[in-house]
Amino acid sequence: MKKLLMGLLAVGLVIAMAVPASAFDSEFGGYWRTRAYMQSDFAGNDSGAQDLKQVDTRTRLYYTAVFSPDFKFVNKFEFNNTWGDTVGGDIGTDGMGIFRIKNSYANFNLGSVNFLIGLQGRTFHRGFMFDDDFAGAVVTFNGPGFSIPFTWVKAYEGGMGKDQNDYDVDYYVVNPTFSFAGGSVTPSLAYMYSKDASNWASMKIEGTKIFESKIYIVGLDADLKFGAGSFWFTGMYEGGDVAVTAAGESVDLKAYLLALGGSFNAGPMDIHGQVFYATGDDNTSDNYEAFYIPRGRSYYWAEIMGYGIFDNQVSANSCADQISNIMAANIGVGFKVSDKVKLTADLWYAKLAENNAAGDDVLGTEIDLKLTYSLMKNLNLDLIGAYLFAGDATYKGANDSNPYEIGTRLSFSF
Question: How many Cβ atoms are within 10 Å of 302's Cβ, its own excluded?
C-alpha cells in the first residue's frame, strides 16, 4: 500500500515539474466516513448466523486537472477499511487490496458536444436500471432546454483470439432529457447485447448461463415541482430474448417496473413517500417475467430490507438494491429541530410480487429512525435505528426473530 501511494505521489510530482504551472489548474475534493453499527437476526431467526458488530472507514479522494473550461481530466480514488481486519485495518494499517481507482476519465467539449471517455459513473432511471461505475464513453449533444446523451458501457471484454469478441457484453443507452419550467422528462432506450455471454459470471438468469443476449428496455423518468411539492415517476418495460443453451434455445423477456414518489415541505417539516413495483416470474409460462438487469442496477431504500446507510447486508430473501419481484411502499416525515439537528422517521411495507415456493409473499413492515446532527460545517453525525416486523417471506419456521440494527456514522465532504 505504501509503495503504491509513493508511486502515485512520484507520478504526480513528475507531472507537476514537467508541465508549467500555468498550463492547468488543480481541483481537490473528497468524502470520508466512519460507521459503527450492530445488526441482529437478519436471517429472520435467532440463530445469530448473520449477526454483526463492526466499525469501518471509507475515504474517497478526488483530483481534477483543469486545462480549460472545455477540457478536464477527472480522477477519483477510494480506500476502505474494516477496523481490525487483516487487509489494512489491523495494527500497522498498511495492508494491500483496499485501494481502488473508481474513476479516471477525460471530460471535454467540442462545440455543443460533450465527451466523457474512460472509467466513470452513470445513473439511469434513478438506479432502478443502473447506478454504478464502468469503463466506456458518454457523448452528449447539448441544446437549449435539452440534452441527448449516448452511453456505451463495456460490461465484459471477451479477450484476444479467434472469435473471442463473441464473448463481449455491451450496454448501449440513449436517454435525452427535455427541461421545462417546473420539471423535466427523460425517455430512454437501452440495448444489452452479446453474441455469447456464457463467460461472464454476472450474466445469468436464476443460476442459468446466458448465451446470445438481446435485451432492450424502454423507459421514462418524469420530475415535476409545484410550489412546496415535488413529484417523480419512473417506468420501464423490458423485452427481448436470451438463449439459455448453446444450441440456441431461448427465453423471451417480458417484465416491467413502475415507481412513483414525492415530497412536500412545510416550514421545518417535510413529508415524503414512494412506492415501487417490479415484476417477478410466476413460472407458469415460457417467458421470463422478473425484471432483470445483468449487473449495474442499485437502488437503496429501507435500512434493513434495502441496504440504507449500513449497506453490507439485508434481511433474508429481500432483493436488496437489485429491485425485482417486489412491491414496496414508504411514508416518512422529517423535522428540522434546529439549524443543526434534523429528525427523520420512515415506515416501509414490502412484499414479493410473486409468492415464494412456500406460498408466502410478505417481507414485513419496517420502521427507520434517523437523527442528523451538524457538528460543524461539512461534518455530520448520524444516529440510526431500524426494526423489521418480519413476514413469512423473510423467514418461516421455528425460533423466528425480527431483524434490527443500531448504528452511527460520522462523515464529511470537501
Answer: 26
